[in-house]
Amino acid sequence: MPAVQETVERVKTLDVDQYKYGFETHIEVDKAPKGLSEDIVRFISQKKGEPEWMTEWRLEAYRRWVTMREPTWARVSYPKIDYQDLYYYAAPKKNPAPKSLDEVDPEILKTYEKLGIPLREQEILAGVEGGSRVAVDAVFDSVSVATTFKEELRKAGVIFCSISEAIREHAELVRKYLGSVVPVSDNFFATLNSAVFTDGSFVYVPEGVRCPMELSTYFRINERKTGQFERTLIIADKGSYVSYLEGCTAPQRDENQLHAAVVELIALDDAEIKYSTVQNWYPGDAQGKGGVYNFVTKRGDCRGANSKISWTQVETGSAITWKYPSCILRGDNSRGEFYSIAISNGYQQVDSGTKMLHLGKNTTSRIISKGIAAGRSENTYRGLVSAHRKATGARNFTNCDSLLIGDKCGAHTVPYIESKNASAVFEHEATTSKISDDQMFYCLQRGLDEEEAVALIVNGFVKDVLQQLPMEFAVEAQKLISISLEGSVG
Amino acid sequence: MLQINNLVVEIDGKRILNGLDLSVKAGEVAAIMGPNGSGKSTLSYVIAGKEDYEVLDGEIVLDGQNLLEMDPHERAAHGVFLAFQYPLEIPGVATMTFLKSVMNAQRKARGEEELTTPDFMRRVKKAAERLHIDQEMLKRALNVGFSGGEKKRMEILQMALLEPRFCILDETDSGLDIDALRVVAEGVNALRDPKRAFLVITHYQRLLNHIVPDSVHVMANGRIVRSGGKELALELEASGYAEYKEEAA
Ligand SMILES: Nc1ncnc2c1ncn2[C@@H]1O[C@H](COP(=O)(O)OP(=O)(O)OP(=O)(O)O)[C@@H](O)[C@H]1O
Ligand SMILES: [Mg+2]
Q1: What is the similarity comment for this entry (chain A) (predicted)?
Q2: Chain A residues whose C-beta sits inside 8 Å of any chain B C-beta
Q3: Mutating which of A445, A452, A461, A466 best tests the B interface, going by the most B Cβ atoms within 10 A?
Q4: Range of the domain at A44
Q5: What does pTM read for this prediction?
Q6: Model ipTM value
Q7: Is residue A176 situated within a structural domain?
Q8: At the topology level of CATH, where does B2-248 sit?
Q9: N or C: which end of chain B has fewer CB within 10 A?
Q10: What are the domain boundaries of chain B?
Q11: Contact criterion met (CB < 8 Å) for A446 and B71
């Protein structure tokens, strides 16, 4: 039996059932009643102690949303979601905003430990080694649980807190920037998020400050039938720099879990934001049952001249991924980057890519996308690069490579290019390759087993993108890639 | 060391090896010659454990172990090495990374310690110099864009680093210029060892001028039809395979 055939056989039986993070935490939960209505929106806003303007903002979004339709253009298919059958608010009960990790429910901390991100350890490590430091804002279902490193960040003038806290404590910043990149009415999922978002992170880096450490959030979906709607807002003021990492994990369940997040990034003059995502949500079982539906709107606005926003993502999870981190290149000489590794296995469906909208002069963008499809998965890259009439000297380079493992999966590339300025130069390269039986045999003959061989070839394939991740997370991502391809070969 | 008895192999219902017998002693260099399509590469693949080949009968025993019961990577760890007639390209994987991965994989399989980076570097440097392989080439993706001769030298480099007990060289001389041929042959000769055996598949005497064989076997229609000493190769060069083809028909 040829290697690819065997791959397919194995995937059918094993693969994603072995989801490593499929465990539940048992803690008391404070939940809103099922379904969505103006009352639920008010309930959420009230629960979070929000000011009146925020409640109104949400209600406006809700009223918009009821007039909108779910988009159908992506190359994904899933049974209709009953939005009235979901819970929109779930907060761990014993959690009145802990001051330090000691006050955090030990069950929750245990969950994070299982995830391999011991908050406590990170704090200690940072103190001892003084080398790599990561501030973690952990989101457990909907409420931000603990924020480490707060003190040190405060000294640098960096605000890093939950969005709820920001709404209360930094209202002027939130009012100025929230919804300024992803408008309330942007798209079905973003509008839904605007109405019901329950938590997420807020970052503000003041003028001229280089954030002294990597900022990181771990999202996790725990409660049954809760949609998770985080909202993240990051503002890099003039000449500042910040690197942010988002990691996501969800426990294993039979029913599908909905995740519709919104991330907004704003970079002012000469500022730079690096946003990295390592996403390994539960992808569903071998029959395609269960798993997370991930419908996310991520957009960065290079608002100032010479600003830069760079998205790096490693996507290995979710049953369905619908996600297009984008850059609006508004400031002259601004630069947008998108580096992506998307791995699909089992019955996963991924439709992901980016949009680079060149508005300012001499704006540049770079897209490197690596799609890996195994099992019976479908992996689509969808990208738009456009140049506005005034975007003189706009340049883009796009490279999309797909790697197929087995012959029951699919990889698709859908590039859209729109140029209204004759001086714009857009380059596009795309390749599709397959790990051949002969390549496999060559590696086996040298002593690698099948999984080692696939991991080696895949890691070679994604190398250019892995290099873009902050050091600490590149190693984690590499491990994740191996895990997600486990069982993709005999 | 290697003992093959009555090997019968088919692929896609077509019989390629037809009751092949061969034995190679430790320390021996055995040459196999024979017309195109006679099954030489097939034999090397079956020894190494390539899928798709159906072994209908026979056995292959290397130092007491029946290879046919082992997976390809286990055979590799047990000391089987095949220098491919057409080495494969592995895009994106730096040659260095590949070398380190395979060396450590074999060591792990044998329950040995992984190599430290300095130790690994030292070994690679030494072996590469001997084969006139430029250090820069080792940073490139394995075999990608390498010339035919470079690929063949890379095979011998891997052989030198992995230190296998049984080495199969499938037409390693093809694609080599005269100087490269000498370099490669020297590389192989340096590995000659009383505990190691070689199976050298070739069409030309010129390789055997450099790597002098202890025995020469003629293969036709999927079996060994004649065996002799190194003079047999010279005789074949003069007279061709006509008599064996007829004999088999
Ligand atoms: N998949 C296959 N299906 C049918 N026949 C095959 C297949 N693969 C190889 N063969 C045949 O097996 C025979 C032996 O091939 P092999 O490559 O072993 O010959 P060889 O002795 O190495 O020849 P050369 O000297 O040209 O390298 C050939 O006739 C070849 O066409
Ligand atoms: Mg051959």
Answers
A1: Belongs to the iron-sulfur cluster assembly SufBD family.
A2: 1-3, 433, 436-439, 441-450, 452, 456-457, 459-463
A3: A445
A4: 27-484
A5: 0.78
A6: 0.96
A7: yes
A8: Rossmann fold (3.40.50)
A9: C
A10: 2-248
A11: no
